[in-house]
Amino acid sequence: MPRSHGILDMINMLNKAFLPLIIGGIISGVLWTNPVLAECQKPDYDPPKCTNQYIEIQFLDAKDFESCKKEVTYFLERLDIWSKCVADEARLKGDEAIKLFNCKVNGTVNCLETSG
Fold first, then answer.
1. Residue 42 backbone class (left: φ over 0; alpha: ψ -120 to 50; beta: rest)
2. Residues 6+ apart with CB under 8 A from 48
Protein backbone atom coordinates (compact mmCIF):
# COMPACT_ATOMS: atom_id res chain seq x y z
CA MET A 1 0.00 0.00 0.00
CA PRO A 2 2.70 2.59 0.82
CA ARG A 3 4.41 1.88 -2.50
CA SER A 4 1.33 2.71 -4.59
CA HIS A 5 0.80 5.84 -2.50
CA GLY A 6 4.35 6.97 -3.32
CA ILE A 7 3.81 6.32 -7.02
CA LEU A 8 0.59 8.33 -6.99
CA ASP A 9 2.38 11.21 -5.28
CA MET A 10 5.11 11.08 -7.92
CA ILE A 11 2.56 11.03 -10.76
CA ASN A 12 0.73 14.00 -9.26
CA MET A 13 4.01 15.90 -8.88
CA LEU A 14 5.02 15.17 -12.49
CA ASN A 15 1.59 16.17 -13.77
CA LYS A 16 1.85 19.51 -11.98
CA ALA A 17 5.40 20.12 -13.17
CA PHE A 18 4.98 19.15 -16.81
CA LEU A 19 1.36 20.05 -17.54
CA PRO A 20 2.23 23.53 -18.88
CA LEU A 21 4.88 22.01 -21.15
CA ILE A 22 2.57 19.26 -22.39
CA ILE A 23 -0.29 21.67 -23.03
CA GLY A 24 2.08 24.12 -24.69
CA GLY A 25 3.36 21.35 -26.95
CA ILE A 26 -0.14 20.28 -27.93
CA ILE A 27 -1.33 23.83 -28.55
CA SER A 28 1.70 24.85 -30.60
CA GLY A 29 1.69 21.57 -32.52
CA VAL A 30 5.20 20.69 -31.46
CA LEU A 31 5.90 17.00 -31.90
CA TRP A 32 8.00 15.28 -29.30
CA THR A 33 10.77 14.45 -31.76
CA ASN A 34 12.82 17.44 -30.60
CA PRO A 35 14.79 17.41 -27.35
CA VAL A 36 12.64 20.28 -26.04
CA LEU A 37 9.00 19.37 -25.37
CA ALA A 38 7.59 22.81 -26.11
CA GLU A 39 8.62 26.40 -26.48
CA CYS A 40 9.00 28.24 -23.21
CA GLN A 41 5.96 30.37 -22.45
CA LYS A 42 7.09 33.58 -20.79
CA PRO A 43 4.75 34.37 -17.88
CA ASP A 44 3.45 37.79 -17.01
CA TYR A 45 6.13 39.70 -15.09
CA ASP A 46 3.62 41.75 -13.13
CA PRO A 47 3.04 40.44 -9.60
CA PRO A 48 -0.54 39.44 -8.76
CA LYS A 49 -2.93 42.36 -8.33
CA CYS A 50 -3.64 41.31 -4.75
CA THR A 51 -0.13 42.50 -3.79
CA ASN A 52 -0.93 46.06 -4.88
CA GLN A 53 -1.06 48.27 -1.78
CA TYR A 54 -2.91 51.03 -3.63
CA ILE A 55 -5.99 48.80 -3.62
CA GLU A 56 -5.75 48.08 0.11
CA ILE A 57 -2.86 48.54 2.52
CA GLN A 58 -3.38 45.25 4.38
CA PHE A 59 -5.38 42.10 3.86
CA LEU A 60 -9.03 42.29 4.84
CA ASP A 61 -9.04 38.94 6.63
CA ALA A 62 -7.42 35.50 6.76
CA LYS A 63 -9.31 34.36 3.65
CA ASP A 64 -8.02 37.37 1.69
CA PHE A 65 -4.48 36.63 2.93
CA GLU A 66 -4.67 32.93 1.92
CA SER A 67 -6.11 33.77 -1.48
CA CYS A 68 -3.31 36.24 -2.21
CA LYS A 69 -0.72 33.80 -0.89
CA LYS A 70 -1.97 31.19 -3.40
CA GLU A 71 -1.80 33.72 -6.25
CA VAL A 72 1.78 34.68 -5.33
CA THR A 73 2.79 31.02 -5.03
CA TYR A 74 1.31 30.26 -8.46
CA PHE A 75 3.07 33.33 -9.91
CA LEU A 76 6.42 32.17 -8.50
CA GLU A 77 5.88 28.62 -9.78
CA ARG A 78 5.23 29.90 -13.31
CA LEU A 79 8.39 32.03 -13.17
CA ASP A 80 10.38 29.03 -11.93
CA ILE A 81 9.07 26.73 -14.68
CA TRP A 82 9.82 29.37 -17.30
CA SER A 83 13.34 30.04 -16.02
CA LYS A 84 14.17 26.31 -16.02
CA CYS A 85 12.75 25.95 -19.52
CA VAL A 86 14.84 28.87 -20.80
CA ALA A 87 17.94 27.43 -19.12
CA ASP A 88 17.30 24.05 -20.79
CA GLU A 89 16.81 25.70 -24.19
CA ALA A 90 20.01 27.70 -23.75
CA ARG A 91 21.94 24.55 -22.80
CA LEU A 92 20.56 22.68 -25.83
CA LYS A 93 21.44 25.56 -28.18
CA GLY A 94 24.93 25.69 -26.69
CA ASP A 95 25.35 21.93 -27.11
CA GLU A 96 24.19 22.24 -30.72
CA ALA A 97 26.73 25.01 -31.41
CA ILE A 98 29.54 22.91 -29.93
CA LYS A 99 28.48 19.90 -31.99
CA LEU A 100 28.36 21.98 -35.19
CA PHE A 101 31.77 23.44 -34.41
CA ASN A 102 33.24 19.99 -33.82
CA CYS A 103 31.68 18.72 -37.05
CA LYS A 104 33.34 21.53 -38.95
CA VAL A 105 36.67 20.82 -37.24
CA ASN A 106 36.40 17.14 -38.23
CA GLY A 107 34.94 17.79 -41.70
CA THR A 108 31.81 15.77 -40.86
CA VAL A 109 28.78 16.40 -43.09
CA ASN A 110 25.20 16.42 -41.71
CA CYS A 111 26.33 15.50 -38.20
CA LEU A 112 23.18 16.86 -36.54
CA GLU A 113 21.09 14.30 -38.45
CA THR A 114 23.24 11.45 -37.13
CA SER A 115 22.99 12.33 -33.46
CA GLY A 116 22.95 9.47 -31.04
1. beta
2. 68, 71, 72, 75
Say if CB 71 and CB 50 are below 8 A apart.
yes
Q: How far is CA 77 from CA 39, 43, 51, in A?
A: 17, 10, 16
| Alpha carbons within 13 A on the beta-carbon side of 109 | 0
List pLDDT tens digits, range 66-95: 999 999 999 999 999 999 999 999 999 999
Q: Say yes or no to pLDDT of 18 above 80.
A: no
- Kindly give, in sequence order, each residue whose CB lies less than 8 Å from that of residue 38, ignoring residues fewer than 6 positions away: 21, 22, 24, 25, 28, 30
Whether this prediction's pTM lies above 0.70 is answered by no
The predicted pLDDT at position 110 comes to: 78
Sign of the CA dihedral running 80, 84, 90, 93: negative
